[in-house]
Structures are given as structure tokens and as C-alpha cells.
Amino acid sequence: MTTEKHGFEAEVSRLLHMMVHSVYSDREIFLRELISNASDACDKLRYAGLTNADLIKDAGEFAIDIRLDKDTKTLTVSDNGIGMNKDDLISHLGTIARSGTSAFMENISGDEKKDVNLIGQFGVGFYSVFMVADKVEVLSRKAGEEQGYLWSSDGIGEYTISDAEKAGPGTSIMLHIKDDAEEFLEVMRLKNIIKTYSDHVTLPITLISKNDDKDAEEKETSEKVNDGTALWARPKTDITDEQYKEFYHHVAHAYDDPGMTIHYRAEGMIEYTVLLFVPSQQPMDLFDPARKTKVKLYVKRVFITDDCEDLLPSYLRFIRGVVDSEDLPLNISREMLQNNPVMTTISKAVTKRVLSELEKKQKKDREGYEKFWESFGAVLKEGIYEDFERRDQILKMSLFNSTEGDDLTTLEDYVSRMNEGQDTIYYITADNLAAAKRSPQLEGFKAKGIEVLYFVDPVDEFWLQMMPEFDGKKLASVTRGSADLDDKKDDEKDQENAPELDALIGVLKTNLGEAVKDVRKSNRLTDSAVCLVADDNDMDMHMERILKMHNKLDGAASARVMEINAENGLIKALASQAAKDGSVDALKDASLMLLDQARIIEGEVPEDPVAFAARLSKVMEESFK
Ligand code: ADP
Ligand code: MG
Questions:
Q1: Residue 405 falls within a domain, yes or no?
Q2: Residue 315 C-alpha to ligand 1 middle, in angstroms?
């Protein structure tokens, strides 16, 4: 027999070091983690068996056994699930594959007290066994394979793997309990833990212990400990918040509190039960390009799959939980699920329900809704361009920041605050709130008391293309087209310095040539000297930058319109210069610097940074002569 030695991945070693030396008071969670893994393993085998019946030919009933032995001070958790072969053992129990675990590692501060609390918040899966055991042996055989393997480690630096005999497929995990953890060899203690954390697990969990009375006829006592009825199938009134929370942790592989719980049963033509959660924290994979939904599909209490594209739309991928159908066949495969009319009906109804629950929350618990929105608003808004039927509803539910203070606002509220005669909803798009707030294009709007919305999620650019209006009001970017901010007073002032300003505009156009589409007097600036805007029919500047960043844009960016502020000191000085002879050459550098300045304000780089620096140096030198 060969025994191979392997070193743990460096990150795992760090994690294990914490576990081994942990003084965490809720060490009992190791059992929750083992049971959760065992239950997942059984679900996986059952599902694999749908397409390959050979795999479950001899499987018998799926079950989890927990065996206590005070003599050898061992506790063994066994399942008859999918099992692991050698490669699986190396990749699953030697590295950090699990997203939650790497997030945990990122949060580790080095401060032991804080870090220990993180264990409770994240749960760190299999490795948590080393809080209570000084040696762990995993005996496993993968379904469909003959060879079994024994993985063994004391949690320090290394583990070994050797060939081993194992009767059926599945996994048996033996913990050699530490001296200070002998409480976990007590039947009562274990029963309690299982009731607390794993009561809802639908497989029978049986506790087996040796009889203390050596003369007793039976050498062992075994007892089924968990309730075993699916939590979602119980009446709501029988379920405590704590039980919902434990179930959420189990089903979502998450350790935050559920932000919202949606539990109901649909009756009628198609019957199904729904238990869904909105997390309170963003799951790690929220912005994965695959945009997969994670809700688990059950049929009559039997797990089918958690990879079911048709169950919920991608823009609800933050939702976790279970949908359990009474009408689908138990042996339904992934292929059969696609375009299945029952699935379509369920999906539509559940989507509708989730949105209406969120709407309810928005009305009844604004603070809670804002918290939800901060975590998941950007994802939900994807529905505005993806879900034709519900785009108006989702847009109505959307919250935005605006120039009116720090509170989030709905579009409806914006409309109710619109000035008399205002028929347009103004917005600015930017990479983040700070950048949006800095934009010079807002100056004139602020001065005139016109509210502007800040659209700062990349997704905003995309839904805007689909929704040119809201409630009959046009949506317009303040960085595009001409701003209708004129009033009489401005016009009068215009007359006074019109000739000089026209001269400057002429000089700028000559000097900047193709680099700008137009130069014009701005009525959206009150302080800054210049800004850039996109022409009416051109793409929004922020959108153009997003597309460029993702290499989605062929050819050069379109030339922008440069607007100058007639009231600005620098522009006035330049204007009086522009009226003089030879001003085109004299103002060459100034023209180019003005354009570069406008670009920098937009968060872009000057076209030729070296030339820009040289011109700036020259100006500074002049000013100190
Ligand atoms: P997670 O369960 O979140 O993936 P764990 O650390 O609990 O993280 O487990 C790591 C991986 O080890 C699991 O994803 C699974 O592939 C494998 N694993 C753990 N326990 C078992 C088991 N009893 N049967 C089969 N595979 C298991
Ligand atoms: Mg796990």
C-alpha cells in the first residue's frame, strides 16, 4: 500500500493554524458543517443517479450516521453520498476552492479575537473540524468507482492519502476528539447541536453510541435525531426565526442573517412551495459573468438541482432558497427542465411575488429597503433592460442619489419635486458618486435649482438606452446636447461681450480643429471655465468610456463639443485677447490646454500628456518671472 504525503496550500495552512489554536466558543458548528457536506453529497448522488441509474443501484436509502465511541474518543460522521476519489480529496480538502472561505481569509485581520468571531460569521466548512479534533481521517469512495482512499491529517502542514478498502460509495469522517473537547462525545450534547443546526435536513440523521451498560443485550443504541421534514413544508407558524436563519445558512452556504424571508405555498392548477431569502450581504459571486441563479429546485421534497436557469431570471440571482414543485416528475433531467411549461409558470409567478414583496418592503420599511438596494440594486436594475414585461415596475422600484441631499430617491419622487414647467428628468452618469458630484456640467443646474439624478452603476447606461422616458417625461443627460437653462438676464449680458466671446470661439475652433466637434458658449457652467459635452445625437461620454474600457468600441471616440463659460475669469481674459491681431497663434497653447483641462475633468487623460506637461511648465515659468 502506498501512502502519499501532500502539503496544504499556504492559505489552507493559515486557516488550519487558526482552527487548531482556536479559542472560539461555538466550536460546535463543526458538526453543522459536516452534516451539511454529507447532505450535499447525498443530493449530488441522487441527482447523478437520474441520468446514470447504475450509480444508485445499490445505494439504499440516503442517510447520515453519527457514531460516538468514548473508548477511542472518536466521533464519525458517515454518508452514502457521491464520495470523493483521490483527485477530489486533494482539490477539496487540500486547497481553498470554496468562495466563502477565500472571503473569510481576506477578512482575517491577525487580531485573534476578531478573527475567531469570523469563524461564526462565515463558517469555514470542512476545516472547522480541527477546532475539536487533533487528528481527522476521511475514508471515501466515489460512486461508480471501486477504489477507496483514506485521507488523514493532524491539521498541521501536511496530509496523507493512501489506498483503502471501503464497502459502498460515500464518505466516513472520523474525528479524534481533543482532550478539551470531550463534550462532543456526549449523546445529549450532540443531540442538541443537531436539533439546533440541522433539524431541517431532510435525510435521517442517526446517532449511534455504545451502551454504557456492558451487560445489556444490545451493544449499541441508535436513535434518529432530526425532525427530517423539510422546513418549507411545515406551517409558517411552527417555524422560528432562528430555524429560518439556520436553514438559510444551510441552503445558501452563507452566514449572514437573511434580510428578507419569503415563504408561501401556491395552490391551484400548479402547486408548489416557495421558501426564498434575500441575503443581507452580497454573496461573493454576485458579479460573476455567468450570472447564475442559485435557487434550489425540489420535486416533492426531493432535491433536483441548483443549476436551473429557468427558475428565476438572472437579475434575481442574489435570491437564495428553495422552490418545491408537486407537479414535475421526480426523474426530471436538466434537459427536460428547459422550456418546461410548468417551470415557466412557476418562474413567472415566483418572479412576480419576489418583486411585489420588495415593493411592499419599499413602502413599509424604507430603511430596510435602502439597505437591500445598496447591496442588490445594481443587479435588480439589469431587469430594466432584460425583462420587457417588468421594466416599468423595476424602474419604479429603483433608488438613486441626486443633487438634492444625501437621501436616495425614486423617479416618482423626483417627478413630484420637478420645477414648474420642467418636462425633463435630468441625470448624469459617472463611475461613482464622488465623480458624479464633481462634474462641472452640473453647475448651471444647481444654480437654477434643477435637481439632477446621479446614475453611477455601469448598468444604468444600458437600461437608459431602453427607457428614454419615465412617466411621460424625457430622461436627459446633463452632459449631452444643449442645456435649456437660458433666461433673459443671460441674454442681456450676452449682448455686452458678444463680439469678444465670438472671437474667442473662432480662435478655439481654428486651433482645435478636428479635436472638437464644436465650441460654444455654455449655460450649464457657473464656476468652471470649460467642460465637454456630447452632441445631441452622439453617444453619452460615460457610456463611450465604458465601452472603450471593455474593448467594445471600434475606431476613435467621437469628438465632443467644448463649452466655455463666458462669466469665468480665464475665459474673459482669453476673450479680450482673442479680439486682437495674431491671436490665433498667440492663443495656440492656451486653446490646447483648455481642451486638455476639460478632458482631465472628465477623468480622461490629455491626448499628449508630454506636450501637456511642457505647456503647463511654460505657463508656470512665465508666471514666476
Ligand atoms: P463547501 O461545502 O462550502 O464546498 P467545505 O469545506 O465544507 O466547503 O467542503 C469542501 C468540499 O469538499 C465540498 O464542496 C465537497 O466537494 C467536498 N466534500 C466535503 N465533505 C464531503 C462529503 N461528505 N462527501 C463528498 N464530498 C465532500
Ligand atoms: Mg460545506
A1: no
A2: 28
CB of 92 sitting under 6 A from ligand 1: yes
Residue nearest to atom 27 of ligand 1 (CA): 37
Probe target for ligand 1 pocket from 19, 40, 137, 203, with the most ligand atoms within 8 Å of CB? 40
Residue with CA nearest ligand 1 atom 21 = 37
Greatest pairwise CA separation for the chain in angstroms: 118
Centre of ligand 1 to C-alpha 38, Å, is 8
Residue-wise pLDDT for 200-215, tens only, equals 888 999 999 987 776 7
Q: What is the three-class DSSP state of 111?
A: coil
Alpha carbon distance 279, 257 (integer Å): 7
**386-440 pLDDT tens trace:** 999 999 999 999 999 999 989 999 999 999 999 999 999 999 999 899 999 999 9
- For CA atoms 82, 84, 87, 93, the dihedral sign is positive
What is the structure's pLDDT at 76? 98
Residue 388 lies in a domain: no
Q: Which ligand is nearest to the CA of 125?
A: 1
Residue 314 Cα to ligand 1 midpoint, Å, equals 26
Shared-domain flag, residues 143 and 29: yes
CATH code of residue 417: 3.40.50.11260
Same-domain pairing of 152 and 178: yes
Q: Are 15 and 127 in contact (CB under 8 A)?
A: yes
Helix axes 10-20, 112-122, angle to 10 degrees: 100
C-alpha cell at 577: 485677447
pLDDT of 489 reads 52
**What is the domain extent for residue 455?**
413-477
- Does 37 sit in the ligand 1 pocket, CB within 6 Å? yes
As given in the structure block, the three cell numbers for residue 569 are 475669469
Mean pLDDT, the chain, integer: 89
Q: What is the pLDDT, as a whole number, of residue 556?
A: 66
- At 2, is the pLDDT very low, low, confident or very high (cuts 50, 70, 90)? confident
**Shared-domain flag, residues 191 and 53:** yes
Residue 98 alpha carbon to ligand 2 centre in Å: 9
**In angstroms, what is the span from residue 130 Cα to ligand 1's centroid?**
15
What ligand 1 atom has the least distance to the C-alpha of 93?
12
Asked if residue 496 and residue 358 are part of one domain, the reply reads no
What total of structural domains would you count in the chain? 4
pLDDT value of residue 110: 72
Give the Cα separation of 459 and 467 in Å (integer): 13
Task: Say how many Å lie between the CA of residue 33 and the centre of ligand 2.
Answer: 5
The model's pLDDT over 463-519, given as tens digits with 9 standing for 90+, comes to 998 899 999 999 999 998 776 676 545 555 555 668 889 999 999 999 999 999 999
Instruction: Please say if the pLDDT value at position 266 is more than 60.
Output: yes
Higher pLDDT, 136 or 540: 136
Say whether both 47 and 113 belong to one domain: yes
**Does ligand 1 lie within 6 Å of residue 253's CB atom?**
yes
Number of the ligand closest to the Cα of 36: 2
Q: Which three cell numbers stand for residue 546?
A: 465604458
CATH code of the domain covering residue 300: 3.30.230.80
Which pTM does this prediction carry? Answer: 0.78
d(CA 16, CA 7): 12
535 Cα distance to chain centroid? 35
Query: CB within 8 A of 619, min separation 6: which ones?
Result: 589, 593
Q: Establish whether residue 126 lines the binding site of ligand 1, counting it when its CB lies within 6 angstroms of any ligand atom.
A: yes
Residue 543, domain member (yes or no): yes
- Which residue out of 34, 37, 42, 124 has the highest number of ligand 1 atoms within 8 Å of its CB and is therefore the one to mutate? 37
